[in-house]
Design brief:
By secondary structure, this protein is of the alpha+beta class. The protein has 4 domains: about 280 residues, Nucleotidyltransferase, domain 5 (2-Layer Sandwich); about 80 residues, Alpha-Beta Complex (Actin, Chain A, domain 4); about 110 residues, Substrate Binding Domain Of DNAk, Chain A, domain 1, CATH 2.60.34; about 80 residues. Helix content is about 30%, strand content about 30%. Strands 1, 2, 3, 4, 10 and 11 form a 6-stranded mixed β-sheet that branches. Bound molecules: adenosine-5'-triphosphate and magnesium ion. Adenosine-5'-triphosphate binds next to helix 6 and helix 7.
């Protein structure tokens, strides 16, 4: 089996690394750079450019040049170029493919396996879409790793002797992740993660764009894609400059054509103070996830010994200041904010391939959000749907948990299990991941039948849901996926006679059906047993079928006596 690479697939930039001589090494792209812009250009002839070469087309051909595609991961939006449609993961696959080819070139070997990082706060759907992008790029995705956890691995490997509480604050181009972990002599124990999948440097760019060119009656920049790209580039340049300078002169000559063909230009001086004012609300909103992650880890800011600042947006002075004000003056670590995630991904790859000793470095991670179902609840105000957690947020993974539910109405034979993730008690405020249908529940009064729903959440943060009828053992399972649920086909009970060994059961089942038709099964017990027998036969569960047969025999005898009794009563005979 070949070498495994680690890839930081970022909103704005991407990096690839692997382990060389026991330490992570970033691999250069075809331009010799370690950081590749996450930009893909598709040419008229279908030819693909990635990185800096693609970024050049952002201004001239924005219609077939894609940036910040990560923010669309797992969503339904499609991208169009030259009349052809692409799903976000297909574009991401082109980016991954380029990085891998560059790595192959530099290592002079074929690469077929990778660890890919995602924001800790990425949902199940977004993780699956990322894994899919890897697959489309021809890679075996060995692990989907949380970005802040990757940063912690990088720090952990370099500080194997330390025992510290660490907070990772990762603000990149499109996402915010906060992770709290304990480092204990090479054991990295992630305690809690929190974040926002829609907050990052690109939001700051957009705020600046809005301030630079407000749409007027004569011209609206949002109607002109090329003008928008120029504006976006100017805004980002301005933001980056203001990280080290007090003011910046934005100059965009002939940005737009206004009324009567008059050219409109933007000339503005932006002071750092202005910028800080404009983004204050967004920057301040990152305080809450820090406090929430700390609270979930049962720590206070005073318990922290190290803060790792990760992601290009942590170079912004007011971002650093906010982190410091929120956590107190905790020493900041000097990890490379741009490269640490890819280095950590390479370390995870090294742990899997064995080039890093997993006795030196051990990692536990958590599920960053709560996963659960949306059952019906009977209350004084009638019935309502509520969110019922099964795996609470920040449970150590892999995790497997289950709960028992009862069908909500009498004689219900089918249930739909809705799967959600989020923290609200109202499922409508959470994200719906999918559903699972379980049929073949023996009809019974409410409370008599039970359905067990179990969730298992793996090391990649991917969820598998199973449901089974406890009385019969009938089970369906599904991987909650971007394309909906892939449920196994339910059993077709009407075909029980085709099952192996069914012949022996035929007389008994016929008798039972006759009795039921005569109204001899008021409690539904016979029907239930008959169903279970049929299911056991179809599932080739011979032992269970045999046991059930004995039960059914006994029950039918009792029923016959009961029917006899009723007949006698109508004749007016009393028996003891
Ligand atoms: N010196 C700087 N000052 C301010 N912002 C900066 C600076 N350098 C980079 N950035 C911003 O950082 C962002 C990119 O950071 P990074 O490469 O860490 O993100 P990413 O990994 O691509 O995104 P994500 O992790 O959210 O998917 C961009 O928005 C960029 O404008
Ligand atoms: Mg990043």
């Amino acid at each position: 089996m070949g070498r495994i690479v680690g890839i930081d697939l970022g909103t704005s930039t991407s990096e690839i690394a692997c382990i060389v001589d026991g330490t992570p090494k970033l691999l250069p792209n075809s331009q010799g750079k370690l950081v590749t812009p996450s930009v893909v250009h598709i040419g008229e002839d279908g030819g693909v450019l990635v990185g800096e070469a693609a970024a050049e087309y952002l201004f001239t051909r924005p219609d077939c040049t894609f940036m910040e595609v990560k923010r669309l991961t797992g969503g339904g939006e499609v991208l169009k170029a030259h009349g052809k449609e692409y799903r976000p993961e297909e574009i991401q696959a082109l980016l991954l493919g380029y990085l891998v080819r560059c790595a192959e070139e530099s290592l002079k070997e074929k690469i077929e396996r990778a660890v890919i990082t995602v924001p800790a706060y990425f949902t199940d759907l977004q993780r699956r879409a990322t894994a899919k992008a890897g697959e489309l790029a021809g890679l075996a995705v060995e692990r989907i790793l949380n970005e802040p956890t990757a940063a912690a691995l990088d720090y952990g490997l370099a500080n194997l002797k330390e025992c510290k509480n660490v907070l990772v604050y990762d603000l990149g181009g499109g996402t915010l992740d906060v992770t709290v972990l304990e480092l204990f002599e090479g054991v990295i124990d992630v305690k809690a993660s929190c974040g926002n999948n829609h907050l990052g440097g690109k939001d700051f760019d957009e705020i600046i764009m809005g301030r630079l060119a407000e749409p007027s009656d004569s011209a609206d920049p949002s109607a002109d894609e090329r003008a928008l790209m120029r504006l976006k580039k100017a805004a980002e340049d301005c933001k980056i400059a203001l990280s080290t300078r007090e003011e910046y002169q934005v100059s965009l000559p002939f940005l737009l054509t206004g009324a009567e063909g008059k050219p409109l230009s933007v000339e503005k001086t932006v002071r750092r103070e202005d910028f800080e004012d404009w983004v204050a609300e967004k920057v301040n909103s990152t305080r809450e996830p820090m406090m929430s992650a700390l609270a979930d880890a049962a720590l206070t800011p005073g318990d922290l010994q190290v803060v790792l600042l990760v992601g290009g947006s942590t170079r912004i002075p007011c971002v650093k200041k906010l982190v410091e004000e929120t956590l107190g003056t905790v020493p900041r670590s000097l990890v490379d904010p741009d490269l640490t995630v890819a280095r950590g991904a390479a370390i995870q790859a090294g742990l899997i391939e064995g080039s890093i000793n997993n006795e030196d470095l051990v990692l536990t991670d958590v599920c960053p959000y709560t996963l659960g179902t949306a059952p019906l609840q009977h209350g004084i105000f009638g019935r309502r749907v509520f969110f019922d957690p099964i795996i609470p947020r920040n449970t150590t993974i892999p995790a497997e948990k289950s709960k028992i539910y009862h069908p909500a109405v009498d004689y219900q034979t089918e249930v739909t299990i809705d799967v959600y993730q989020g923290e609200s008690s109202d499922p409508a405020n959470n994200e719906r991941l999918g559903e699972l249908n379980l049929s073949g529940i023996p009809p019974a009064k409410v409370g008599k039948e039970s359905v067990e729903v179990s969730f298992s959440y793996d090391m990649n943060g991917i969820l598998q849901v199973k449901a089974s009828v406890l009385s019969t053992g009938r089970q369906v399972s599904a991987e909650i996926s971007t394309t909906g649920i892939k449920a196994k086909a339910p059993l077709d009970l009407s075909r029980w006679e085709e099952a192996e060994g069914a012949r022996k059961f035929r007389p008994l089942i016929r008798k039972a059906e006759k009795l039921m038709a005569a109204g001899g099964d008021p409690g539904g017990d016979v029907e239930l047993l008959v169903r279970r027998v049929k299911e056991a036969l179809l599932l080739k569960n011979t032992k269970e079928a045999g046991d059930l047969r004995d039960q059914l025999l006994g029950m039918l005898e009792a029923l016959e006596q009961l029917l006899q009794l009723q007949d006698d009563r109508t004749l007016g005979i009393d028996r003891p």
